[in-house]
Amino acid sequence: MTTQTQNPNALLPESQRGPAERLLDLVLGGSAHLWHNRPGLDVNGTWYAAAHATPFQRDKGRPVKPGLFVPAAVKLYRQLLDIYRLNAELMAHFASYALTQTDWRDLKVATCALMLVQEHAGQPVRDEQGGVAFHDDDWRAIGEAMVLHYERKSTRMLTPKAVLRVAELLEHPEIARLNREAGFGDPASRKAPLGRWKRVASKWLAAREANMPMLQGLVKAGYKETLKKLARKAGYKPRAQGFFEVLGWKQKQSAQGHREVGLNGLTLVKRERFDGLSEAEICEWIDLERLSYKEVVGRLPKDVGLTPAIMAALLPSLSDRDLRLMTPTLEELGLLTDPAIRARWEKAVHTATDQRALNIAKNVRSAVLRRKLEEASDNAARQAVAEATAETDVRVMFLIDKSGSMEGAIESSKEALSRILAGFPMDKLHIAAFDTLGTVLRPKAANRIAVQHMLAGLRASGGTAHASALYALHRDGVRVPEDAKLVVIVVGDEAGEAGDQFARAFRDLRIPVSAMALLVSVAHARGSTVRSCAAQLRVPFSEVNVDQFEDPYQVTRVLKALMDAPTLPGTAQSGWVERVMRTPLLKVA
């Protein structure tokens, strides 16, 4: 599964692509997750869940334990390093963007790790007389600010687990090797370069110790052992023994006798099991202590288990995302028949920011609930498009290749389109399929089911003429307002007429194009029609493999990047990259 983002002015080789192209390529083609909490298989550098592997994957794959998937981590970190070497300021803005504008947890960890160890650390630059002329940029402060950034009840900050993973990533031998090769650490040292991680992790822990309710909240959320690991790895020295008490962490004197805090009179907070308590008593404890789902589920007696009453008592502690993920459990317990619980669940469906609900829908029995979860997928796509187009009037043309060369690939195209088309306002969306003849398509409604119905009849056959789709839309009365920006997205293998012919059709029909994209779906051979057309029109071009849309988190990321049209006509720069550069740099408070 590979993607490439090309410079529209020329089909540049890899070595000549600039930092902006590489950054867009990373986002459009970087769906791989770095950490997995279940056993997997490594099949040529791609992770697959061992429990759901195909016979081919079991035969060719190498078993990997839960935890960091090294091939994906090395690939992502190397991509970030390449961008950093070409433009350190772009990487600083991208790190700030990744934390505050995305929900991509592994990307936040990787960019934070890089910023904490990279070489721009505010060093003094001396003049010829040896005096300090000025100080270098301190991009390491961006990494510090990423760790310390705090927004109450926000998902756009680093969790305790993420702060710990920054160090775990930097300590891995392969990542340490990349950092040494980049000049970020002593090449002779056996220790992995950690940059400012220990210092900022200690600051992070000190802030939580100074705010004891915040520390207690993290323990309730299930981070107790993570906090202990953080303190050990950072060498953190608590100011008072209350830190150890909240964590239930018994202390003993070190061999060197250095410890001064937490050795005497500790009153450890322990989380006892609920054995011997009735269902009503457990519910009272949950309400009294405001316990979370993670705190309770492992302490329930076997003869009681998770009952409807206990689950109902835990609902206030669950986020909207938790509610969506736990739909099968709520259905099994019969809680979704309660009007108040059902109303809150439907609100959670409406606020979805990823398409994971499509996977959850496979595990529910009710057809009504399944349709509601599919709505969550549509809502996530709509929100992504709305965010990306908030600043300008963007119109979209989807041109779908159904020629004979698409035999074997048309079905994957349909699946990808069913995940994304419902995200677009129908009055700003124009769709046409083409072989040698263009056909205008219209969904009956703005949802996944309607899109699937619209695409069901498409069959691969005939020749390939991309321009025929444009002529069909033009005959149908489609016009783009002068003050709007048009993004043209072609789905197929771009094996058709010459790019200049396709570009001539846009000019002849006076269709102003602001950006072009290709959703690559190849069954046989790959052409270059769309890339060449973008080069002729001198507009930004990007591409993404349709397989990327199998990742429920990647769909919204790709939509945001594809829909950011350029701010100036005739520019070859992606508007999404411009948005990244406009992101204010994070600062340590």
Automatic annotation (TrEMBL):
<dbReference type="InterPro" id="IPR002035">
    <property type="entry name" value="VWF_A"/>
</dbReference>
<protein>
    <recommendedName>
        <fullName>VWFA domain-containing protein</fullName>
    </recommendedName>
</protein>
<dbReference type="Pfam" id="PF13519">
    <property type="entry name" value="VWA_2"/>
</dbReference>
<dbReference type="InterPro" id="IPR036465">
    <property type="entry name" value="vWFA_dom_sf"/>
</dbReference>
<feature type="domain" description="VWFA">
    <location>
        <begin position="396"/>
        <end position="475"/>
    </location>
</feature>
